[in-house]
Specification:
Blueprint (H helix, E strand, L loop, with lengths): L1 H31 L1 H12 L4 H31 L4 H22 L7 H26 L1
Helix pairs in contact: 1-3, 2-3, 3-4, 3-5, 4-5
């Protein structure tokens, strides 16, 4: 009986720490994902001329950064959550969409553009992947 209570407390603490780590961990992973994106784009676009590579790099990186960031945040949040994984990824996606909409409403320099539309599409795609994964895990 005593060992069961100890095991429950250990699992409770593990789950608690994982729940606490979901939001910061997924945001950290999203931030870290920006470095490989920059390196891959720089390596493929720099080619012969250093200056020409930088000219091409800025708009493409500006377009792809929020897409990659959000997909990584939703996917890593799904992996970090100890339970209710799909619901957690939906909550992360909703938080991101709400923060984007609030930014668009209150900051006059930010506006709805093609990059924002693709970011929202990427969020839906990441949620679809998580939904499929949760469905597979539920069937097994």
């Amino acid at each position: 009986m005593r060992n069961e209570n100890l095991d429950r407390r250990i699992w409770y603490k593990k789950d608690l720490f994982r729940w606490v780590a979901v939001l910061p961990g997924s945001l950290f992973a999203g931030g870290i994902s920006q470095f490989p994106l920059h390196w891959v784009l720089y390596a493929t676009l720099s080619g012969e001329s250093f200056e020409n590579g930088l000219e091409l790099l800025k708009p493409i990186e500006h377009f792809l950064s929020p897409i990659v960031l959000m997909v990584v945040v939703v996917l890593v949040g799904y992996k970090l959550a100890p339970s209710f994984k799909f619901k957690t990824s939906v909550i992360l996606a909703v938080l991101w969409v709400l923060s984007a909409l609030i930014s668009i409403m209150f900051i006059s320099t930010i506006h709805m553009d093609l990059r924002t539309v693709f970011t929202f599409t990427a969020i839906l795609l990441a949620l679809y992947f998580n939904w499929r994964k949760s469905k597979e895990n539920y069937q097994n």
